[in-house]
Design goal:
Specifically methylates guanosine-37 in various tRNAs. The protein has two domains: 3-154, Alpha/beta knot, CATH 3.40.1280; 164-231, Orthogonal Bundle (Trp Operon Repressor, Chain A). 34% of the residues lie in helices and 18% in strands. The protein contains eight helices and ten strands. The longest helix is centred in the last third of the chain and has 19 residues, at 202-220. The mean pLDDT is 94. The chain binds adenine.
Amino acid sequence: MNWRATVLTLFPEMFPGPLGLSLAGRARERGDWSLQTHNLREYGLGRHRAVDDTPFGGGAGLVMRPDVVDAALSGVLGAGDVRPVIYLTPRGRRLTQADARRYAAGDGVVLLCGRYEGIDERVLEAHGVEQVSIGDYVLSGGEPAALVLLDSVVRLLPGVMGSERSGLEESFSDGLLEYPHFTKPADWQGRAVPEILLSGNHAAIAAWRRASAETDTRARRPDLWAAYASRTSNNALPGT
Ligand code: ADE
């Protein structure tokens, strides 16, 4: 299987960036996934290869032109290309682990990175572009967000992550944050590892980890906790 990522950006030098190293980089060398970048500037207009213009309605900043983005998408996408086209923007729906799993199960993604104030909404509509945000903060462009999205997906591709087990137990796989981790030394600067973890009692350890995951999720992520608690038909969960 060759999972394909295509990135349209004004800054192709930002790729593969961290995805050229470690797990993702080795997986790419093996051919588990591939990355192609295209410079949106190549589709710019006139002598200056302009890609943006002032916003209708006034306001600060510049907006990427629909004709330029359309030419880029049409130039890059083949006829039978069924991959989702995703525009990284703080206006998008929030990226989740479920999205990462869904993208990993497909043939790949086409990522559209904007600069300036954004991209003309009409070309996003016309191409059925998904709008995705990586969190409630504003980056200076979509590129770091595209790298984040790709990292979250590539590690899920078959054969990429060393241990399949750690994928099943990690944060969000069951709607909870993962339990905390400890390693040697058992006593470090007067801080002892929770004793149960040294007991060898696997059932007790599993119960302790589940309880820790619930406690931490409730304290740190009330949004996840509320969804988890309402899904778990057991209404007697602590703190609900
Ligand atoms: N571009 C700028 N900010 C972003 C964000 N938070 N998520 C995705 N793309 C962005």
